[in-house]
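Quick question: what would this complex look like in 3D?
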Amino acid sequence: MDRISDNPPSSLSALETKIGRRKFLKIITAAAASIGLSSSAAVKIVEAATQGLKPSVIWLHFQECTGCTESLLRTSHPELAELILDLISLDYHETLSAAAGHQVEKSLHDAMEANKGKYVLIVEGSIPEKDGGIYCKIAGKTALDLLNEVAADAGAVIALGSCASFGGIAASGPNPTGATGVPMILKDKTVVTIPGCPANPYNLLGVVLQYVALGTLPALDEKGRPMFAYARVIHEDCPRRPHFDAGRFVQQFGDEDHRLGHCLYKMGCKGPATHANCSIKHFCEVPGAWPIGIGHPCVGCTEKELAFQVPIHTTVDIERPTPPDTYPPIHAEHRGPGPVATAVGGAVVGVALGAAWRQSKKLDAEAPDSTEKKEE
Amino acid sequence: MDRTRRSFLKGMAFAGTTAAVGAVPAVADEKRRAPDDAVGMLYDTTRCIGCKACVVACHEANDLPPDDRGDGLYDAPQSLNDRTKNIIKLYREEGRRSYMKQQCMHCIDPACVGACMIGALRKREYGIVTWDSGRCIGCRYCQVACPYNVPKFEWEEANPRIIKCELCNHRLAEGKEPACCEVCPREAVIYGKYDELLAEAKKRLADNPGRYVDKIFGEYDGGGTQVLYLSHVPFEKLGLPELGEEPVPELNRTIQHGIYKGMIAPAALYVVMGAVMLRNRRTGSGDEGGES
Amino acid sequence: MSDHKATPVGGRLMTPTTRVLLFVFMVGAALTVWRFAVGLGPATGLNDGYPWGLWIAFDVVTGTALACGGYAMALLVYIFNKGRYHPLVRPALLTSALGYSVAAVGIIIDVGRPWYIWKIPLKVGSWNLDSALLEVALCVMAYVMVLWIELSPAFLEKWRESGHTGLANFSRGLSKFMDKALIWFIALGLLLPTMHQSSLGSVIMLAGPRLHALWHTPWLPFLYLVSCISMGYAMVVMESTLSSRAFGRQREDRMLASLSGATSFTLFLFVVVRFVDLFLRGRGPLLISEGYYSVMFWLETVLFLAPAVMLAGSRGTARIGNMFRAAMMIVLAGSLYRFDSYLVAFNPGPGWSYFPSVSETVITLGLVAMEIMVFIMLVRSFPILSGTSPMAAHRK
């Protein structure tokens, strides 16, 4: 497994599985379709790959758990990892690299030189900014310097995972290292963010495939997230949604509702405010392999404002409320008067009537007729 | 309601406005018909499945915020309100049930329009009753007048508006249907020219004996409405009022126009009173006179 | 008239009474500011079922009817030529001017978008002549002005004697003009209430299908007009009696007593027309079949009939306390009739309810407090009340 250092970038293949062109085309077409690219785009991808025009990829690791790489490598679809790694020329990746030390550093510099302005930079992990960024160093350089240096000549920058996208768990309070995400540092560069803890590998695949095939990046939302995956909230496509609409909620873990698979909103599910496609594209192609699928509320890992910020069992506002599965009656009851208002109103009328009555009694007491001439 | 023309005349008599009496029969006899270009909707309770797609579509098409003022979870209005121009309600009683779609009826002779002081609510093109922000002072007389309880007021706003269905006239201008009709999966509510809808409703009644209550609500009710209803349960169960065939604002119009026709009666009264006072001043008062 | 020459009551403007009134008014004013900040929903008990509440039913509909003293007295003095009632006119006009001004303020507080009110009188081309409310709005706006003009001689009299020569000259010049023109303003002051007090009945008539059949009738405008005249007389009785007590003035019992004949007539007329109309239109059975509504109807009828009977004979009017009670009942009857037709008999359908919120009630109280306070201050400063004893001025 010393290919990264031994071979020129174009011949890199992580697992060196031989697959025929036909099968390759089939896989790519299926993969392309799954992320919304046309079959003609798939043909282009295959052509690019077989002609050896694979984009050079530099993969930087900073403050993270490597979960994003792990989930990429553990996709159950056997060819996914190969696919990604075959389609691209992964010139620098600290986890997958067999080489170490100066060897691997050299390949980084070689790749940057050879593909200046064209290579793809994928960042995994947050970047500490506090105290000059001394809390994360690779080869004697701070993560901050390394990121700026590599990003300067990158053709595209992808922040993979919540840490790289907005700081993630490392940035949660008290954030001792001043951890932050790639877009916060590369302010004047387009950064595709693929948040998630871990990020769904298919979303990375989609971005990379499009870049390979068309040389473009997908449409992004205001937080740099690809619209194809992050335009909708989990709540909108959640398999437990009918239970929400019908008002059937889990009240406590392990209760009858929980066993029946009812809605987890009251357990703190962040689905109604979390933009992600988890409910449609499950992890690792294992059906049901995602938090809500296994009976746990969504923690909102793709949202900077939610993940590691709002307690897991705190409920959130519904971002796009829709009608429930109930109906108002023809004549609904509306708010009525409060008791205080009634009391005050009654008192005012009572005092007015009472005062007038007393006044009339006083008049009775006065001399009945001579008053016309009377002077007080 | 047993308001008859005689009662109008009676009502007029007290004002002593003989000048107006001649005009009354003309006003009362004139059948107020839908405008020639009138459009409308036809809602059929037997086709509605209560999916509320129309409620959602209405919100989106009219840029209304969801009414989640209940528990914060749902867009769950209890009635039409300042965030709801269209709603699906449920009638359920003794095993019978029916959905009910509620929105502006776009009356042929609307009470709200009769009420509105300077024409903020008016029947504009296609007979659609629309609201004009620049002319509304927020007096809410339209709410008092509407027999269907349709116009709604933004109670929680410092600069409130009147909110009501305007038959998606902004979409009609783009050549589209009202959003509720467009999304309805069963054509329970359909959009079309008023005359065609009326014909369609009559056809459904004729083709399906026993399926419906034998009446089209809105054909004559309250002078007629451009939104028509067919139902398999009695209309009053769906919250539709029994109005009679006379337009709701007719009585008021008759009396107002009777008394104030050309301002003749008030002007005459003014002159007579002035003259009486002048005479009194000249002749001096019976008991004791004087300047004010 | 020389006996009854109107003079300022005099005395200090700020007394414990006016201080209390000022305080209530300030609380109301603060709540009004809040109402404009947060909108009508949080500040009132109003809702989409009952879009009109206390402010319309009391401040406007009842308030202007109670302010019909000026109208009723002007009718009596100028049209029926009963000059001996003249001393009652000016205080009645002041009560009316204040009442209508308060109603105008009430409308401004009640409507959602008062900054567009100017469009009502000015956008003539947009006038909807079907709208009874438009007529009410225009008439009330005009009548507020007319009332203050009718009252202007009281101010001019004072200012003529003012030390400030400019003001004195101006007042003298205007007085000359007013002597000639006033009669036409008075005529207008008779025409306008005739129009809009009846139209207040037409306004709620449009709620037709939602107004209970016991109240809904084409005769609503007529009933409103007749009852407002009764209420006007009653208010003159109450206002005159109370101000006599408060300022130690000569009482006007005999004058008031002779008013009661006319009042009694209008009260009977109201009840008779109402019943005849009900039976002619075949609604007689509703008088017993409608439960709560029937009870309210009968309560109104009793309140209208009782004072009519009390005032009919000469015995009833011999005692001022009795007259005062009768006037009180008339005020109550007319107010109840107005509250019933605008709120109680107005039924927007099941599920809706209304009761004025605390802030709504307090704002109304603030307006009434302001009205009374300004009344006290004006009669102390300007020649409005007659028969004032100079000594009595020091009493309060």
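Answer marked as accepted. The radius of gyration of chain B is 24 Å.
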